[in-house]
Amino acid sequence: MLDQTGRLPAAIVACVGGGSNAMGVFDAFIEDHDVRLIGVEAGGERIVRGRHAARFAGGSAGVLQGTRTFVLQDEDGNIELTHSISAGLDYAAVGPEHAWLRAQGRAEYAYVTDEEALGAFQTLARLEGILPALESSHAIAYAQRIAGALGPSAILLVNLSGRGDKDVQTVEKSLANR
Q1: How many Cα atoms within 13 Å fall on the side-chain side of residue 85?
Q2: Nearest one of 128, 139, 144 to 162, comparing CA atoms
């Protein structure tokens, strides 16, 4: 980033399922406290049990597969069903690194709905000719939401992962069902 632009980004936005995508880009900037680290989870249809996969918006501290982190679970600790248009974000727990970054106040987390992700997929495809993965479409949608507030001179880094050609049938089906 410094080699190409001479400065750090104002914010970095990446999708968060288990969290490897976001950690891959956040890691280099954790010590740069002026850079906002923003993880975007799958808000699915809405933040209601079984209709999303946003652990920070609708989960609580718990243990899944031997890891203490934020988990979508009921009052007895039973894992809840999740939903996302993106299979890669449709997971009941978030990586413990993200729970730690959030607890430290170093990273912030938001969610984007299926509809917003579909819109971002279409926007990037239309304007740039890039078919983003539906996972990354969540990050793109959130970046669109905050870009104006950052100002025209701000650098906003969005981490794209995967290829959207794997998601074309899902997108087509979802758009046909509107």
Answers
A1: 33
A2: 139
Classify burial at 124, counting beta carbons within 10 Å of its beta carbon; exposed 0-12, middle 13-18, buried 19 or more: buried
- Average pLDDT score over residue span 83-108: 96
CB 44 within 8 A of CB 113: yes
Q: Give the neighbor-by-neighbor strand order of the sheet with 36-44.
A: 107-113, 36-44, 11-15, 156-158
Q: Give the pLDDT score at 78.
A: 95
Q: Which two tokens stand for residue 6?
A: 């001479």
What are the residue ranges of helices labelled H in 78-152? Answer: 96-103, 114-128, 134-150
Q: How far is CA 60 from CA 24, 83, 102, 115, in A?
A: 24, 17, 13, 25
In the three-class reduction of DSSP (H, G, I as helix; E, B as strand; rest coil), residue 90 is classed as: coil
Query: Which of the 8 DSSP states describes residue 104?
Result: T
**Model-level pTM?**
0.96
Mean pLDDT of 149-160: 97
Q: Are residues 123 and 24 in contact, defined by beta-carbon separation less than 8 angstroms?
A: no
- Inform me whether the pLDDT recorded for 178 exceeds 90: no
